[in-house]
Amino acid sequence: MTLTDSDTDTAPRPAFDRAASTSAPILATLAERWSPRSFDAAKPIDETVLTAALEAARWAPSAANSQPARFIVARRGTPEFDTVASSLLGFNSVWAGSAAVLIVAVAEVVDAEGKPRRWAEYDLGQAMAHLSVQAHHDGLHVHQMGGFHVAALTEAFSLPAALVPLTITALGHLAPADALPDDALRARETAPRTRLPLAALLLTNV
């Protein structure tokens, strides 16, 4: 299945401009990608689109092609989804249950010979970046979270010491900001997007 622009244009759009302000043009998918908290709890995930996002993660680069990224994919309505959702902390636990899918991003930090994989977490980050861009391109939205009970999730899914969960990602279809149950969440949803200026990131640029 190949999505066209007309396919993705049916998704709800925020009533405010979320596109990044950049000093040079970048790909529209990157400029328009943002991390909402309001997801449509009634809309199921398209399995082809979900698979495409996971394939994008699979084909991300990794050190020596070691491929240390692993994923727990839990769809709403399953016990596994409830387990992942119950591990979330703070504001995350309030809104993330409306997402169609929760994805635990796991790094394999030790190889089969017991040697540490120094770049595993970096490579997992690249995989998740690929996943988020592909998902946004296909009309979905993604919000990555670091606030969760790592030990509880590790125990619930019987993860060995070599597999370390780093983030949980909510993935699904956008809902209006006023669907959020909390004034503080609604304020965050509509707050301007900000980044440091590019010059502040460049330690050397000669």
Characteristic terms for this protein:
globular; Nitroreductase; disordered N terminus; 4-stranded antiparallel β-sheet; 206 residues; alpha+beta
Quaternary structure annotation: single chain
Largest sheet: 4 strands, antiparallel
Structural class: alpha+beta
- The main sheet orders its strands as 1-2-4-3
CATH superfamily of one domain: NADH Oxidase
Total strand segments? 4
- Which range best describes the helical content: under 10%, 10-25%, 25-40%, 40-55%, 55-70% or over 70%? 25-40%
What is CATH's topology name of one domain? NADH Oxidase
Shape type:
globular
Quickly count the helices.
9
Order of helices and strands: HHHEHHEHEHEHH
Uncertain residue ranges: 1-15
Into which percentage range does the β-strand content fall? Answer: 5-15%
CATH architecture of one domain: 3-Layer(aba) Sandwich
State the end-to-end CA separation. 45 Å
Pfam families: Nitroreductase (PF00881)
Protein name: Nitroreductase
GO molecular function: oxidoreductase activity
Keywords: Oxidoreductase
How is the topology of this model organized?
Blueprint: H1 5-8, H2 28-32, H3 47-58, E1 69-75, H4 79-86, H5 92-95, E2 101-108, H6 120-137, E3 141-145, H7 150-156, E4 163-172, H8 183-190, H9 198-201
Antiparallel strand pairs: 1-2, 2-4, 3-4
Structural commentary:
With 206 residues, the protein is of the alpha+beta class. 34% of the residues lie in helices and 15% in strands. It has helices spanning 5-8, 28-32, 47-58, 79-86, 92-95, 120-137, 150-156, 183-190, 198-201; strands at 69-75, 101-108, 141-145, 163-172. A four-stranded antiparallel β-sheet has the order 1-2-4-3, with helices on both faces. The protein is globular. The N and C termini lie far apart (45 Å).
